[in-house]
Amino acid sequence: MAILETDRLTKSFGALAAVSGVSLAIEAGTLHSIIGPNGAGKTTFFNLLTGALAPTSGTIALDGRDITGTPAHRVPHLGLARSFQRTNVFPAFSLFDNVWVAAFARAPSRKGIAWRSADRYPEARERALAALADVGLAGKADRPVREISHGEQRQLELAIALAASPRVLLLDEPAAGLAPEETKKLVALMRGLKGRYTIVLIEHKMDIIMSVSDRVSVMHFGSLIAEGTPAEIQKNAEVRRAYLGGVAA
Q: With 0-12 CB in 10 A as exposed, 13-18 as middle and 19+ as buried, what is 237?
């Protein structure tokens, strides 16, 4: 059953349709990847799903509920969480503090924050520590972010997303800039999360896509041109043309 669906979702900037009539269904509990050349519209599509951009037309539904036009600050409360292409953390804060903020923001009420310490919010603390443990960073919870590696900062971003207790996790190029060993660690982490969360992944590294995905959708010039299993996508002539031009027929 689809947990996240779009119907003819479109975003135009003047005469340019960055996302054009995309209808996509993400099945609950799967890892569904979205691939395509640079400029295909993948990140714009994520921006539409998370309320960072309002669609020109079309709809977005989560568990059958129309969430089109929901403001970005409300989307995490619906169960959608996202990581970004660029690391987006507070370097002077500890790892725990970075994740605690996300866990606390997901709470139904933030009354009294100016007068109470973080320890007075046990549920947020427990969610933050659990998220750090999920990504293998529990042992570094008290360290400042500026003292950990780039790969660990990417893991921390994932912990921040998990702290919001998402039902759907949107990952935008999580392996960007990672060394081979860091990439292996990230792939193992995604495999561990797969099934516990519905994951939608944008990634340019095809070895990752082919090894972790249940389904793959391909975007080109804002439109969906193919969808299938990793094996089906590898054999698709239109996908090869999108990536390689006339060289691959």
A: exposed
How do residues 121-154 score in pLDDT, each as one tens digit?
788 999 999 999 999 999 999 999 999 999 999 9
Amino acid at position 201, single letter? L
Q: CA separation (Å) from 64 to 4, 28, 144, 168?
A: 8, 12, 41, 14
Q: Can you name the residues that pair with 227 across neighbouring β-strands? A: 217
Q: What pTM did the predictor assign?
A: 0.89
Q: Could you tell me the two tokens for 35?
A: 């691939």
| Overall number of domains in the chain | 2
CA–CA gap between residue 126 and residue 134 (Å, rounded): 12
Partner residues linked to 200 by β-bridges:
32, 170
Q: How far apart are CA 29 and CA 85, in angstroms?
A: 23
Q: Are residues 210 and 238 in the same domain?
A: yes
42-86 residue pLDDT tens: 999 999 999 999 999 999 999 999 999 999 989 988 999 998 766
For 98, the domain range is 89-165
Q: Given 165, 185, 204, which residue is the final one in a domain?
A: 165
- Any idea what the CATH number is for the domain that residue 56 is in? 3.40.50.300
Query: Which 3 state secondary structure label does DSSP give 4?
Result: strand
164-214 pLDDT, tens digit per residue, is 889 999 999 999 889 999 999 999 999 999 999 999 999 999 999 999 999
